Every structure is written in C-alpha cells, then in structure tokens.
Target: Aminopeptidase
Amino acid sequence: SLLPDTLRAALDRAGVDALWVSSPENIRYLSGFTSGRDARLLLSAQPTLYTDARYTVQAQEESRFPSFIARPPATLAHAAPAVEGLRVGFEADHLTVAELERLRAHWQAGERPATLVSTSRVIDTLRQVKTPDEVARVRAAQALADEAFAAVRPFIAAGVRESDVAARLEGFMRERGAGSAFGITVASGPRGAMPHGTASARVIGNDELVTVDFGALLDGYHSDMTRTVAVGNPSEELRRLYRAVLEAEEAAVAAVRPGATGGELDAVARDLLGAHGLAEAFAHSLGHGVGLAVHEGPSLRAASADVLVPGMIVTVEPGVYVPGVGGVRIEDLILVTEDGHEVLSRSAKELL
Amino acid sequence: SLLPDTLRAALDRAGVDALWVSSPENIRYLSGFTSGRDARLLLSAQPTLYTDARYTVQAQEESRFPSFIARPPATLAHAAPAVEGLRVGFEADHLTVAELERLRAHWQAGERPATLVSTSRVIDTLRQVKTPDEVARVRAAQALADEAFAAVRPFIAAGVRESDVAARLEGFMRERGAGSAFGITVASGPRGAMPHGTASARVIGNDELVTVDFGALLDGYHSDMTRTVAVGNPSEELRRLYRAVLEAEEAAVAAVRPGATGGELDAVARDLLGAHGLAEAFAHSLGHGVGLAVHEGPSLRAASADVLVPGMIVTVEPGVYVPGVGGVRIEDLILVTEDGHEVLSRSAKELL
Ligand SMILES: [Mn+2]
Ligand SMILES: [Mn+2]
Model:
C-alpha cells in the first residue's frame, strides 16, 4: 500500500476503508498538490489525486500520489471500481450536499455499492500538530510579518489612509515573495469597534488607536498577529481599554502549555476582562490554530475541550469593542512546546 | 413583506417559501453585508441576516435586512419559529452535509417541521445578469487592471523574477484602493505550459513568452484578463501558438451576442484551434461569468446550454499548453449588450 501508517491508523479510527477528501487544505497536506480547490483525493490503499487538465504538469510535479486527470463526473466514474464494497468516509464539514448526491449516484448504483460514512475532522485533527518542517514555515511567515510591521509602523500616523497602511504591509510581504494571509484589518478611531472591519479609505485622526491585524502567507503556511498602536495621545478611556486587553492577553499567553484546554485559556482572558467590566465588550473567542489554513483547530473558545499538545500553533487574541468609542485587540502567535510555549510573534506591545 | 418582487418570484420558481442562503457572494448580493463567509441569510417574507458579535456594527451599517447576532447553533434555534411548516430551500452547491444535518435537527424536530428542499443556483442565476451599477463596478475594476498592466508591462523582461512582476501588479492595484482578484499568474518559458501556475521565483529568460493572468477586486467586484507577451525573440514555434490562440480568441469574442450559448462560443474557439492541430492543447473551457465571484455563471464550455443575455459579463480565454515548450493564453472581459458585446479589457494584444 502507498498509504503511510499514520494515515491508515486515522482511517481505522474513523471506521472507514477510504476517505474522499474535498478540503483544499487537507488535499494539500496529504498530497503536496497546491491547487486543492480544483482537486479531490481518494485516500485509500492506492491513493489517487483527481484534478483537471489545467493542472496536468503541476500535479506531476507536486503530488506524492498518482494523479488522474478528469473533470467531474468522470472522476467519480473512474473512482467507482476502487471503492466497490468499501466503507468510504466523506468530510461532512467540507463536502457539499450536491457532491454527496453525486457520490451516491456514482458509487451506490452497482452490485457492490460503497457505504458512504459521514466523518468529521479526520485529517484536520492530524494537521493540528505540526511537524518541525511545518513549524519552521509558520515561524518564517511570522518573522516576515514582524519585519513588515517594523517597516510600516512609522508610517501609521494622523493623515494617512487605513488602506495605505494595508497596501504598505502587503507590498512589503509581496516584495519578499509572500502573500497576505487574509484581508488586512486596519481599523482606526471609532472603526476599532469593528473586530473584523478591513482597511477602509478612512483617514487616521490624531489621538486615536489603530488596530492592525495581518499575516504573511509563505510557502502555503500562514501567520497571524494583531497590534493596536496609538497615534498622538489617545484618551484615558482608550488607554484603560488597552491596559485591560494587554493584561488579559499576557495572562492567557502565560497559561499556554501542554494539557491546557482551549476553554481554560479563553476563561483566563475572559475572567480578567470581566473584572474590568469588559466581559460583554470581548465579543469573540480567544484564538485558533494556524497552519495551512489561517483559521483551523484547536479552538480556543468558551467551553472548548480541545487539549493543547506540543507542536500546535495557536493565536491568543483577546479584544474589546465599544461602539462609538473604539476598540483594542492584541494577538500573538504561540507555539506549544514540551514544557510550555514559545511566542513566535515578536513585535513590541507597548502602547507608544 | 420586506422581500422584493424579483426575489419572491425566484422563490416561487424554485417551489419554496423561503431560502437558507449560505453562499458568501449570494449573501452579499442580497443583503449588502460584505462578510458573507461568517453569515447566513434566511430569505423569507421577513428576511433576517445572521452573523456573530464580531460584526454587530458592520451588519447594522451594511445590511439592508434586519440582523440577528448569534453564533450557530443559536442562529438555527432563532430561525426555527420563522420556518415552521414552510418549504425551505437550501443551496445544495454550497451547503455542507454537516450544516444540512444541523438544519434538520433544529427545524424538523417540532410539531410543524419545515420541509427542506434541495435547490441549485436560485440566486446565482439572478446574479448572472448585472444591473447597470454592477456593470459600472466591473468596468472600473477592469479599467484599473488595464492601467496596472500598462504600468508594469515595461518591467516584464529577461532577468526579472515572475514573482516581482506579480508584486508590481498587486502593488499598483493596492495603491489605488483595490485588491487582487485572485492569485496572479505569471508563467514564463516552459512554465507557460501550466495553465494555472501562479507566479514563481523563476527568472524570466530571453526569447520567452510570459503569460500574465490577473484581475482587480474593487468594491466587491472582480475583473479578469490574460495577456501573453514576448521577451526578446521567441521561436517561430511559439509565435505560431500565439497566432493560433489570437485567431481563436478574436473569433470567439466576435461571436458573443445575446442568444449565443456557452457551448457554441466554446466550439468557435475549439474548432479553430483544432484546425491548427491544437485541440488537445486547449486543456480547459473557454470562459466564465465574472462579478461578485471571479468565477461564476454563465459557463462557456463544451456543450454548455447557458444562453447569453444582455447584462452578462463573461471571459473569453482560449489557451494552448505544450509541456516542455510553453504556452499561450489570451483572455478578454466582455459585456453582453443588446446588439452584441463590448470588450471591457483594453490592453493591447500584439505580440511585441
Ligand atoms: Mn487571528
Ligand atoms: Mn478567467
């Protein structure tokens, strides 16, 4: 069999003989093929990558599994003999209802129909724990983002458009061969009350806070960091928000270690913000895993039972958002190590 | 009812009382809310946008429908009374199997269960025909892309990295307040044989062809254009490929008019390339619609029965790919008008 033992064991745990992989990140993770959005992977004793003729050369160069070039539904017809009589899992969190209907039509019509089994996070769970090579890639992406922030930080000033700050960050990363991990947030003044407002045409004013949330995408792997910086002399109310978030963030980061659960870490930050009367203003979860996807497991949110283990890379990103006033978010990227953690994001957190 | 008549009619045609909208582009199209990836829309007599607390302010500012702030599954519980006894469509091409299972659990447990109905392209079909305002946005995105190409074209030369060409295009668009519509393709020399290879670290050589496929993303709307340019004096073999693709492209563009089908247009280009012995080398479909998504309907591919009508915006993009030798693709962005078409992409197509 061409199937590595760890993958065989994962299929066994899921109770399936094979897995129809439709998540682009999972396809890339398993096969090395970088255009997973236009591909499917049948993970079985003889794994096969399916993609179309636009990618004939690329599939040969990149995929560690043999590829078959066809467009759906010819792909499903080709796979049909290979799945006869098997229990075939599908990724219920990714597969569309329409595609499941096509799998049924192609794989359950014959004399030895496949049994289709709903699965969840079979490969995603494996991806949470990074190999040393993967850690090195995320580390490199974050190091580049730190460099970009250092280069662009002096440019964040009154009179500058939010979108110009974003353009400079993106330009810096592009020049270094990286992409932007997601739409960059640059939220100034009252726009800081929008946790995920991207950069707008708004001109940054004096005595405002500016929240900058961005990451690099390098070699398939992401980084993710947020800094909130002061322009001029923000009000004492804004400074109070900043100190509260920084206190919560540092406490939660300090608690990152193997064995901690996502729920426990979320509670560390949420309880501290609650003590400042800011529980309601912390309108999202504490953090998430980062890797081939910028948002992946484990989940650091209220009541999450996800347990941290060495090799996971997670964000810690408490924030508070006060409509009409503004907001603060501080986010670090953290590697879980054998005896605790290492903070990968190095940009300063002093409110200058 | 808050539901516009055109939407009411679309639901009637689909045989449903309401539609659970999960496609991010469809959510944006219907509601105006720009973060559709983190939202759902219940399109019914009283439409409701569902999103989470990160977007409280943004939903109030952007959505033309009332919003309810909650994370799943609280959203489904809130919607349950509103869908009692109704026929509720879901978007089978977008909805995941796992989410359908959650809809069933929340909406079919009570005494007056909803009937869940698989639908396809109910809203996508409406989106294919652009309003004058939408045409203006795509036109503006393409005009910016043409400007970017004119500015960067002199920089495409032997000794320059592909990724540097991509960075300049992206930087130009960023400075003008736009994003990149998708990962930019810059494929030089033998890499031209990869229809969708993005820009690599490869240094462009002399006497090569360079295929550049890119678009602007402005105000939610995309453009899409490909040019293949010569560096130095490419071989006669490469020039022959270029002339064949240009001939096929211009013939297909000339055939764009109301009433033409996607399959007919694809055949125009495919037959001409076939006459040059290049049918096999044309390894993808002719084109696609462009709007809120960079790839949307109508489909211009072999046997497509999609009929062009005024207001559609489509690409025409034949290409040939010869492993070990190189490739050519030429793509224009075309508006279907009452009496034919208008070419929105203006960059020159001479092989300099
Ligand atoms: Mn984050
Ligand atoms: Mn295109």
